[in-house]
Amino acid sequence: MALDAFDRALIAATQGGLPLVARPYEAVGAMLGVPGEQVRERLARMLDEGLVRRIGAVPNHYRLGYTANGMSVWDVDDTQVAALGRQVAALPGVSHCYRRPRHLPHWPYNLFAMLHGPSRAHVEQQAVQIAGLLGDACRAHDILYSTAILKKTGLRLKED
User: Fold this and answer.
1) Tens digits of per-residue pLDDT, 109-130?
2) pTM above 0.70, yes or no
């Protein structure tokens, strides 16, 4: 897809994230000298065209006090994993949940749910809740705790 000058300016203005203000599109528009509605409409078209996959908030869990972050991994019966995964995803302590293929014999897990809490004990209590929800459909699980903060970045333009 060819980017015009406005697209490039818009990406450059938003590649570090939207401003943390009540009306972020208007703030970006003010930087670019256009109405906020034009910013919103062009970002929506970029989404429709597949240039941008999503626009969403990415909270900094550490700054919110959630210093224990663990990916809980579950070996769930394949005939029940879809329905149970939707229930796990709806739990308040789960920030994201998805199904992945197993890699036997070393990796039997097919359901992943990211848990956040102020302590490992809190995260482990959330895992107990998930285990109760999964019941006999779950054969095994583990929690893989974060050891480093990984910087997530959005769309970037190459420097000329």
Assistant:
1) 999 999 988 999 999 999 999 9
2) no
Predicted confidence (pLDDT) per residue in 124-157, tens digit = 999 999 999 999 999 999 999 987 766 666 656 6
Q: Of 105, 50, 116, which is closest to residue 75 (Cα–Cα)?
A: 105
pLDDT at residue number 3 = 85
Q: What is the largest CA-CA distance in the chain?
A: 59
Distance in angstroms (rounded) separating the CA atoms of residues 62 and 74:
25
For helices 24-32 and 36-49, the axis angle rounded to 10 degrees is 100
Q: What are phi and psi of 134, to 5 degrees?
A: -75, -30
Say how far apart CA 38 and CA 31 lie, in whole Å. Answer: 12
Q: Which two structure tokens, joined as six digits, stand for 29?
A: 């528009």
The answer to whether the beta carbons of residues 44 and 25 sit under 8 Å apart is: no
> 44 in helix, strand or coil?
helix
CA distance readout (Å), 113 to 2, 13, 48, 100, 160: 38, 33, 28, 11, 40
In whole angstroms, give the CA distance from residue 15 to residue 17.
Answer: 5
